[in-house]
Amino acid sequence: MTTIYRGMDKATLDAAYNNTLHVGQAKRDAWVADWTSRSAALRASRPHQRNLAYGPSPREVVDFVPCGKPGAPTLAFIHGGYWQWNDKESWLFLAEGPLARGFNFVNVEYTLAPGKKMDGIVDEIGRATSWILDNLAGLGGDPAKLHVAGHSAGGHLTAIAMENPRVAGGLAISGLFDLEPIRLSYLNDKIGMDVAAAKRNSPMSRLPKRAGRLWVTVGGGELTELQRQSVEYFAAWRAAGLAGEFVPAPVHDHFSIMEELAKPAGFLVRALEVQAAGAPPPAF
Q1: Share of the chain above pLDDT 70, in %
Q2: What is the reported pTM?
Q3: What CATH number has the domain bearing residue 165?
Q4: Residue 227 sits in which domain range?
């Protein structure tokens, strides 16, 4: 056995980052089908602005769903899919919780690999964050009250968005903050990172000097590597003198955790609400 990362060989490392294998294909497919249906229903029932361009390429777009309160806080959500799968359309269901709590909702899209490499994806999220901040007042929100959340690869991109000091707060859900194991795994086949690209795009290697309040969460039923990444990144964030909280979700796996943001009474949407108020996170 040839070990390539933390005592793991290639097959073991691949399994250590395979969320579908860990949760089960049938269970994952059931979640996705439900989320897609709920997203379509919300899209049909709520007034919103769709595909607002923040950059020149076709997937540099966002959707904006207003909560109906002038000057309300806003949650911008960045979907996951290991930077190479999924799109914003099936994640609109997440607006259910934030809208019920008085938040506008921005659904962020970005170019997938291999259409762009990691450098390009990270650059897009930087542009998207700046565009939202610059245009939020015109959309009816308050640019001083922008919060960013993302799941899995979107958790990585949330950490990138937090580099903009104008972002008030963030919620990184089941994120990936050190890209070296990604580079060494099957996931890099389309992304194509070399050692330098993995390092320069790893939030662990580019902690900001100042930032809003970041909360990091991960499910207790998730892959050990994803739990480790969240724990170690939060420790590095706090060691850098940045404000934040670690808010674990012990009963959840990689997919079920998203219901805590989608449901109006969910733990993560309540955490978002108290983050916006400057209060400590609720107990899970």
Answers
A1: 99
A2: 0.97
A3: 3.40.50.1820
A4: 10-276
